[in-house]
Amino acid sequence: MPLMLLPLGDLGAIEHNGTVSFGLWLPWVSAAGGNAVTVKIIHEHDQFQQQIAPSEFSMTHSIRAPYGDFWSVTVPIAGSPPPTTGSAWGTGGRYLYRYHIDNPQVGSLDWIIDPCAREFGLGKLSAFTLGYRSYSWSASESTWRVPELADLVLYEMNIAEFGGSLEQAHNLMAYLADLGVNAIQVMPLSNVAISVDWGYLPIGYFGVDERFGKRSDFQRFVDVAHQHGIAVIVDMVYGHTGIDFPYYDVYTRLGYHENPFMGTFAKDYFSNFGKSTDFNRQFTRDYFFSVNHHWLEVYHVDGIRYDCVPNYWDGPMGVGYANLVFETYHLTKSKIDLHQSYWDRFSSRADTPITLIQCAEQLEGPEEILRSTYSNCTWQNHTYDTAKAVARGDRGKLSNYGLSLGLFGYTEEGNSNGDIIPKTALQYIENHDHERFLCNFGLINPDEAGNPLFLEGDRRRWYLLQPYLIATLMSKGIPMLWQGQEFGENYFLPDYGAGRVGLLRPLRWDYFYDEAGHSLVTLVRKLLRIRRQRVQLRRGSYYFFNHWDRYLSRGVLFFARSLGAQYTLVAVNTNDAEQRVPFWFPIGGHYVEELHGGNLNLDNIVPLQETWLTIPSNYGRIWTTQ
Prior knowledge:
It contains 14 helices and 32 strands. The chain has an 8-stranded parallel barrel.
């Protein structure tokens, strides 16, 4: 059955001329069963005043297709007299609200958040703004176009750690553009129950968590990103929720043995902390489809990274993940065909594939998810795992590393029902799930008490990162940097426990200026400039010179990227000693060494004639036909 968009104009808190309408679907919670539902509202300025209680309004029950029991009420607020002297009730600004259920069997259930709230207060509070003004997008937004998949260079960030807030983060867009980034992947912005958290146990999906700012702050963030040529991808968590998500919270407290929204569907990851969603339910499928549409429509995001796909993966023909990305693709395509609003950002020409980014985190089967669904890119840990093994001294994994850099086994294009979809995978050696790559070369503990949460990679060994950066940013696929990787951020991350997600690790921007930071930033800027200027590094084929005696036994990795007569040879040396090795260039002529040039350029190369090349220790060389 095709997915349907929820009527969001009737759900959540909708303000019109100072009057606010509240709508809430609560399947199986009916007035006939003795239930009564109310909404409690208080002005933000009154929240912590002991003499001012929230105002409470009874909601009316009705049966509304297609999900059944529906509760609603309309509350005039603007200009109405405050219930208590000194209250800000009736004035403009931000109001906090929650739902309350009285049930004849279990009594009173308070502190129920709105599953369709667009704004949030602290903790378990939904919010709306009386007198809210819609964001005015810049004039250039109408001409913004999402970069093609092959041209993407990703930068993953946690807003709280990268800049502290959305406003501070958007001030760094010029820095990212100058670095060479043209897409950012933002860790979850959805509402969560606690203040310091990665965001992977959401309890509200249709807005930006108050710890980052307001919805207009994120719209401004996206607008500024687009002005700098940077696409924005948001991380969404659909396979599980936090325990305070209302469609788990309500039915659990009511003691229901069945749930119209939640339940084990495929895998049941995060069961110790959150609860799985049941994609067998039409309501669940439509809800998350509507979340996708909302973020694409209201916030103008350019793509979605789908977290923990195994929790809702039931195969390529299933009703879970595969159906969601299929329907989202066709929703986008229909919007483009109708030239609706800013949806043209996904289409530069009528004869080209749409550029909506749908990225899966299906680490258990990345090749399959890319091949068999409408996803056009995927996370994969093969490159990360082999690079880590090599960094820790396992030279035997160099062959696997070289193959992973070429994405062997991954499809490059899908053709489903006439929909041509370019496809590829991400390439990274750092992301939010793992300790910094520098930690593989030695750890220090600056904490005088020896707390392992404060371990760090030894930045004195920053130079050991260089060959891995060169390989990653010249590889096939979409290269991704994790915030601060470009200047040697060196936090350690535990493999499990609350210390992973409950500790803020803000970027130490002062690292940018020391020897390690300056050297690494300079290298990353060079590499991304080279990638941007050389089409073969973005769209070309990949050839790995998998020769043990000649290269791998010496810690040297050779691979080539080519497109027609345009040929680039990449050589990296993971050894502590300089290596001099032979190579036979397939194309003759003059070669420019891209990193430093000068006397490193190669003149009068004869095709297939032995040429001896020197690769410096813990570094690399890049030669391109000229």
